[in-house]
Amino acid sequence: MRPIRMLDWDAVQKDKINRIKVPVPFTAYTSDDGFYRVDIPGPLIKQHDEVQVLDRRQFADMANGSYYLVTRVKTHAAFLGQSEEEVLKTGQPVL
């Protein structure tokens, strides 16, 4: 990253700066259990969850002011005897 100096509040300059995109190479990341694979520009960092309900991993793309977030939600579908189709109807991911 490099700082960009803005003089006053020049709307044209601000627009030009906001359109700058830094090319970022993507690499494959696979979860520890191999359940999912995503292409992202850096390593996913596990976020601490006190209750252990969600498995969240995040990569902050500081160069472009964005982030990538992967969240796994436990549905307990297998224990409840629900099929994949039933879980998908509820809008919850299947684990």
Q: Work out the helix count.
A: 3
Mass-distribution shape: elongated
The low-confidence parts are none
Task: Provide the gyration radius in Å.
Answer: 20 Å
Question: N-to-C SSE series?
Answer: HEEEEEHH
Which percent range fits the helix content? 10-25%
Structural class of the secondary elements? alpha+beta
Strand content: 25-35%
Q: Let me know the average pLDDT.
A: 81
Q: How many beta-strand elements?
A: 5
Please report the distance between the alpha carbons of the first and last residues: 38 Å
> Main sheet?
3 strands, antiparallel
Strand order of the largest sheet: 3-4-5
Considering the chains and any ligands shown, give keywords for the structure.
three-stranded antiparallel beta sheet; alpha+beta; 3 helices; two-stranded antiparallel sheet; 95 residues; 5 strands
